[in-house]
Design a protein that fits this description.
4-stranded antiparallel beta sheet; 151 residues; Immunoglobulin-like; 5-stranded mixed beta sheet; alpha+beta
Length: 151
């Protein structure tokens, strides 16, 4: 008895089709997520001025020292945002995201003049993002700043 020859090209072709299908599904999911969090027609043209990220004195509830992009782990720091530069009728929030895009802290959502300062101090790279809300979901990034907390 003779065994039938295995067509290796057909096996490779089917594997390639499976990978292509999975890639298209992942791409489609990414587009759907983008359309949900950045809906078309929601661009307002607003930009917020992030004054800087400074060492924070919790006792006096003020920032001290120069603007910096990196801090030791033992130093408490806070982002300072020029809230009065935004219209008072919009809803915004400010959040810290870690390097895995997990929200690790923030303030809001609320009107710009209602938001208090917020500080953070875990080691790693963090992104500070100010977002505009519409319909209860964030629809536009108004400002962004990356900070390194040293170990």
């Amino acid at each position: 008895m003779v065994a039938a020859a295995v067509d290796q090209v057909r096996s490779l072709y089917r594997t390639l089709l499976i990978y292509a299908t999975v890639s298209i599904l992942i791409f489609g999911a990414g587009l759907a997520e983008f359309a949900y969090f950045e809906p078309f027609g929601q661009h307002s043209g607003l930009k917020v001025h992030i004054v800087g990220v400074y060492q924070y004195d919790p006792e006096h509830k003020t920032t001290i020292g120069p603007d910096s992009n990196s801090f030791p782990r033992t130093v408490v720091f806070a982002a300072v945002v020029d809230w009065p530069s935004l219209p008072k009728d919009i809803v915004v929030d400010a959040r810290w995201y870690d390097s895995f895009s997990n929200v690790v802290g923030g303030v809001g959502p609320g009107k710009p003049d209602q938001l208090p300062p917020f500080h953070h101090m875990l080691p790693g790279h963090y992104t500070f993002v100010v977002q505009r809300y519409a319909g209860g979901v964030p629809v536009e990034v108004l400002g962004r700043r990356i900070v390194l907390v040293e170990r």
